[in-house]
TrEMBL record:
InterPro entries noted in UniProt: Ig-like_dom, Ig-like_dom_sf, Ig-like_fold, Ig_sub, Ig_sub2, IgSF_CEA-related
Name of the featured protein: Ig-like domain-containing protein
Keywords, sorted A to Z: Disulfide bond, Glycoprotein, Immunoglobulin domain, Signal
Record bears the keyword Nucleus: no
Length: 709
């Protein structure tokens, strides 16, 4: 097959204009020996579900064109086995829009005479044509136009943007309001007089283009549950007026988006009172002949009118009046304050009392004798115009839960008397507002005790023959009577007595202290022990023989008043893990005896608080061994006819008993023996060392060889 070169292809479109959102086709137009068509978009093979190719790939169709994505450039390529050729790049000019028509940001409200400029924009290819309407009537065919604001220019402005290629139209709308200046408002009130605790309304009166009413109280916006505004905020109502909170000044302000105006400040003169009528502070009580002025005040607007009554009878129509006190002036004084505007009346009362001097009081007691722990009462006895009773103990007012006063404070009761707290002196005082008088001081002599009976410090233990003195004390008023008992038997009626100690004087001594006024008795007890000298103790052993490695006990044997046992080994107290003492320390046990450590000497000592005695020293003869049996060093070989001595030694206490065996046959019972060597002496020699006390046996062996010629 012969192929000729291919001519350059061209791209033919399906429409003259490419419109956004519409389908658009391009066909690769070429002649020659064409085997295949291929397309490139922006240099790449086409892809995506919005791009379709005809079966022979000659025609490329774009579904729903987009301005950004489908601009291209587009290239078509033809080829055969030997040649290929590409078209010139083809770029789409996609027409679109207008998108949204937008009126560029400008105000919606203007004052008269303002310069208003309206501009409209809309994204479109090719550029859109604009038309402006005012309340439906054309006013401009350009994107922007201007006017000088007047009230007739208010209304709705519509911008229309059109594209003849896409056939689309978009509109934008703006409402413009024109405002004229506002005149000053005035405040109209609901009542002629503003009365405290009543409701009161203020209305803002004005004309013009008013969008909002705003109130100001003392320069700030009104707030609080007692202030209410009408739905249009034109009327402000004050609930339950008060003189301080609602005085003002009040201002109302009218507003529209361009202009505002305020009224002149308006101040309320709130009528109130009279509040509490108060009689100026003076005493309620006087002596006769005193010049007294009664004055009444009551806060009120306008000022209150006053009237005075004495015991219900009018005595004055002014705020103040004076009297020279006499008994005729005793009684109740009433001040009446009135305000005709508020219709309120207030009253204040004061009672005056006149007093004479008081006579001296006396103190009466409930009992002849004051006894500690008992209750005791003192009564203030007096006559006259007594308003109050007052008590003093040691010059100060009584205090504490053990002191009780009767409701009228005339009687003072001391609960559970004590010698120190309740001695006094006691004084009672009577008084009225002008006079007072005191009783003479009264001192209590409180009977008490005996308290704790105490035996004066002395020892509890004595040796026979000692001088023992026992003394008893007990705090008491009057002084206590004493009795001494020995083992329940009387021995003395004085506070102190003495004896010379003997064993029969041991026992319990009881001191009894009594007070006939208080009826109390207390006792103290002391146990006395008498000690005699101790006899010398002896040491008794657990076994006849002390054997090494065995346990061995020594017991301290003694009689008498023994309090403690004490052991000494070589003159010092026993110590070490192998030495044990019985709980009463009477028996000392040596574990696993050794010949060197446990020889002693041992001593036991007995003691009581006054006497001690020791045993004679006791030395242990520890039986041990035999230790290692040893045959004295000699040669193992001899010629016949030689005198040979065999000696055996073994350390032992008592000394070991020896036995010699030759080839198992006894030949000697001494530590050493001699032989004149012969061939009969050949063999094994055994030394056996034995100690019958320890039950131990030790052996040593030696083999002799005898040689003949």
């Amino acid at each position: 097959m012969i192929y000729a070169p291919l001519s350059k292809p061209t791209i033919i479109t399906s429409n003259n204009t490419a419109v956004e959102t519409k389908d658009f086709s391009m066909t690769c137009n070429a002649t020659g020996q064409i085997h295949a068509y291929r397309w490139f978009i922006n240099g790449l093979a086409p892809g995506g579900n919005r791009i379709q190719l005809s079966p022979d790939k000659r025609t490329l169709t774009i579904r729903s064109l987009r301005r950004m994505e489908n601009k291209g450039p587009y290239v078509c390529e033809i080829e055969n086995p030997l040649f290929r050729k590409r078209s010139n790049p083809f770029t789409l000019n996609v027409t679109y829009g207008p998108d949204n028509a937008t009126i560029i940001h400008s105000a919606n409200e203007y004052p008269t005479g303002a310069n208003i400029t309206l501009s409209c924009v809309a994204d479109s290819n090719p550029a859109v044509q604009f038309t402006w309407l005012h309340n439906g009537q054309p006013v401009s065919n350009s994107a922007t136009f201007s006017i000088i604001a007047s009230l007739s220019d208010a209304g709705t402005y519509t911008c229309t943007a059109s594209n003849s290629f896409t056939g689309l139209t978009r509109t934008a709308t703006k409402n413009i309001i024109i405002y004229a200046p506002l005149s000053k408002p005035t405040i109209v009130t609901s009542n002629i007089t503003a009365v405290e605790t009543k409701d009161f309304s203020l209305t803002c009166q004005a004309t013009g283009q008013i969008h909002a009413y705003q109130w100001f109280i003392n320069g700030v916006a009104p707030a609080g549950s007692r202030i209410q505004l009408s739905a249009d905020k034109r009327t402000l109502t004050l609930s339950r007026l008060t003189r301080r909170d609602n005085k003002g000044p009040y201002e109302c302000e009218i507003r529209n988006p361009i202009y505002n105006n305020r009224n002149d400040p308006f101040t309320l003169d709130v009528a109130y009172g009279p509040d509490i009528a108060t009689i100026d502070h003076i005493s309620d009580q006087f002596a006769t002949g005193i010049n007294v002025t009664l004055s009444c005040v009551a806060d009120s607007n306008p000022p209150a009118q006053f009237t005075w009554l004495q015991n219900g009878q009018s005595v004055s129509n002014s705020a103040s009046f004076s009297i020279i006190t006499s008994l005729n002036h005793i009684g109740n004084y009433t001040c009446i304050a009135t305000n005709s505007f508020t219709g309120l009346t207030r009253t204040a009362n004061k009672t005056l009392m006149i007093y004479a001097p008081l006579s001296k009081p006396t103190i009466l007691t409930s009992n002849n004798t004051e006894v500690e722990t008992k209750d005791f009462s003192l009564t203030c006895n007096a006559t006259g115009q007594i308003h109050s009773y007052k008590w003093f103990i040691n010059g100060v007012a009584p205090a504490g839960r053990r002191i009780q006063l009767s409701p009228d404070r005339r009687t003072l009761t001391l609960r559970s008397l004590t010698r120190r707290d309740n001695k006094g002196p006691y004084v009672c005082e009577i008084e009225n507002p002008f006079y007072r008088n005191r009783s003479d001081p009264f001192t209590l002599d409180v009977a008490y005790g005996p308290d704790i009976a105490t035996i004066v410090h002395s020892p509890d233990e004595y040796p026979t023959g000692a001088n023992i003195t026992l003394s008893c004390v007990a705090d008491s008023n009057p002084a206590a009577q004493f009795t001494w008992l020995h083992n329940g038997q009387p021995v003395s009626n004085s506070a102190t007595f003495s004896i010379i100690a003997s064993l029969s004087d041991a026992g319990t001594y009881t001191c009894t202290a009594s007070n006939s006024f208080t009826g109390l008795t207390c006792t103290a007890t002391k146990n006395i022990t008498i000690y005699a000298p101790l006899s010398k103790p002896t040491i008794v052993t657990s076994n006849i023989t002390a054997v090494e490695t065995k346990d061995f006990s020594l017991t301290c044997q003694a009689t008498g008043q023994i309090h403690t046992y004490q052991w000494f080994i070589n003159g010092v107290a026993p110590a070490g893990s192998r030495i044990q003492l019985s709980p009463d320390k009477r028996t000392l046990t040596l574990s696993r005896l050794t010949r060197r450590d446990n020889k002693g000497p041992y001593e036991c000592e007995i003691r009581n608080p006054f006497y001690s005695n020791r045993s004679d020293p006791f030395t242990l003869d520890v039986a041990y061994g035999p230790d290692i049996a040893t045959i004295d060093r000699i040669s193992d070989q001899f010629a016949t006819g030689i005198n040979v001595t065999l000696s055996c030694v073994a350390d032992s206490n008592p000394p070991a008993q020896f036995t010699w065996l030759q080839n198992g046959q006894s030949v000697s019972n001494s530590a050493s023996f001699s032989i004149i060597t012969s061939l009969n002496h050949i063999g094994n020699y055994t030394c056996i060392a034995t100690n019958s006390f320890t039950g131990l046996t030790r052996t040593a062996n030696k083999t002799l060889m005898i040689y003949g010629e």
